[in-house]
Write a structure and sequence with these properties.
This protein is of the alpha+beta class. The chain contains four helices and four strands. The protein has a domain of 60 residues. The longest helix is centred in the first third of the chain and has 15 residues. The N and C termini lie close together (8 Å).
Length: 132
């Protein structure tokens, strides 16, 4: 899969999912479809939610920031946000390995001082592109 690095990530309709051939596969498809519809949202003032629930900053993994999340530039708050988003959609090893690049290429490009949204599916697409 290739993505244009200049094209911003955006929230859109959930992708079409091919129906599974067995009931067991249907459970996996249903989970993946639900995950594709999940949306991260940054709110003016620094709060971040995932599907209307507060996003855990995951200080248990690493504490970049003592002051919460930030976006629109590279820094401690943006790094904490990048890590929290990545840990929501992938494992710890991949999240930590991709954190600085995700901060630079995605979180730093969110409009500073403004609200934003980002689909979990787009984070997965970014991870796939970053690993190519």
């Amino acid at each position: 899969m290739t993505m244009d690095p200049a094209r911003p990530l955006s929230v859109g309709a959930a992708p079409r999912v091919q129906l599974a051939e067995s009931p067991r596969d249907d459970l996996h498809v249903e989970y993946m479809f639900a995950e594709c519809r999940s949306v991260f949202a940054g709110h003016v003032g620094g709060g971040v939610t995932l599907d209307d629930n507060q996003l855990d900053p995951r200080h248990d993994v690493r504490r970049y920031s003592h002051d919460g999340y930030a976006w629109g530039y590279e820094g401690d708050g943006a790094a904490q946000l990048a890590l929290a988003i990545l840990l929501t959609v992938t494992g710890q090893e991949e999240a930590e390995a991709s954190c600085q690049r995700f901060e630079r290429e995605v979180v730093a490009r969110f409009p500073q001082g403004e609200s934003w949204t980002l689909a979990a599916f787009d984070v997965r697409r970014w991870l796939a592109r970053a690993s190519e």
